[in-house]
Amino acid sequence: MQVNFSSNPHGKLFPAFFQDVRLRDEEKYLLGNVHEIILNRKLLGVAKVVAVRSFRFSNLNDTFSFMNCGKHAAYQAAMLEKFYVHETKMEADTPLVQVVWHWEEREMELFEFLLKEWWQKIVDAQPNKLPFKTGSE
């Protein structure tokens, strides 16, 4: 099975464990299931589902949203509505899951490239605010 990501602006796919919020799919998001993780049509690697928490759309909160996408819950809610527009209308009781994966295998050369690219965007956006060297000087 595949899990697709269209972007990684918050860098959540870089740690050994990463999470996302998805529509509940009791067959796909089961503990122990292994997924190919795809970012912009590129295979990043294979990860195993290690935790799943069910909740309702109305329970989406800032604490989770900041960790998941780096934005407030209102932003995360709008993102979910846009992403799932063809599958369902987001209602207060729409069932969602918080899924946590652990990388089993990674395409390390691609990860290295993506991490450098991600970090460079941060440096470029705030060149005078970083109190340490990035290695690109």
- Counting helices, strands and paired strands, the structural category is alpha+beta
**Gap between N and C termini:** 41 Å
Q: How many individual helices? A: 3
Strand content: 25-35%
| Helicity range | 25-40%
Computed Rg: 16 Å
Order of strands side by side in the largest beta sheet?
1-3-4-5-2
Query: Which series of helices and strands comes N to C?
Result: EEEEHHEH
Number of strands: 5
Give the uncertain stretches in residue-range form.
Answer: none
Mean pLDDT: 91
User: Main beta sheet, described?
Assistant: 5 strands, mixed
What would the principal axes of the Cα set say about the shape? globular
Mind explaining what this structure looks like?
By secondary structure, the chain is of the alpha+beta class. The protein contains three helices and five strands; from the N terminus they run E-E-E-E-H-H-E-H. It has helices spanning 62-69, 73-83, 108-125; strands at 2-5, 17-23, 34-39, 42-56, 95-106. It has a five-stranded mixed β-sheet. Helix 1 (62-69) crosses helix 2. The longest helix is centred in the C-terminal third of the chain and has 18 residues, at 108-125. 10% of the residues are buried. The model has no long low-confidence stretch (mean pLDDT 91).
SSE order and pairing:
Elements: E1 2-5, E2 17-23, E3 34-39, E4 42-56, H1 62-69, H2 73-83, E5 95-106, H3 108-125
Parallel strand pairs: 1-3
Antiparallel strand pairs: 2-5, 3-4, 4-5
Helix pairs in contact: 1-2
List keywords for this structure.
137 residues; alpha+beta; 5-stranded mixed sheet; 5 strands; 27% helix
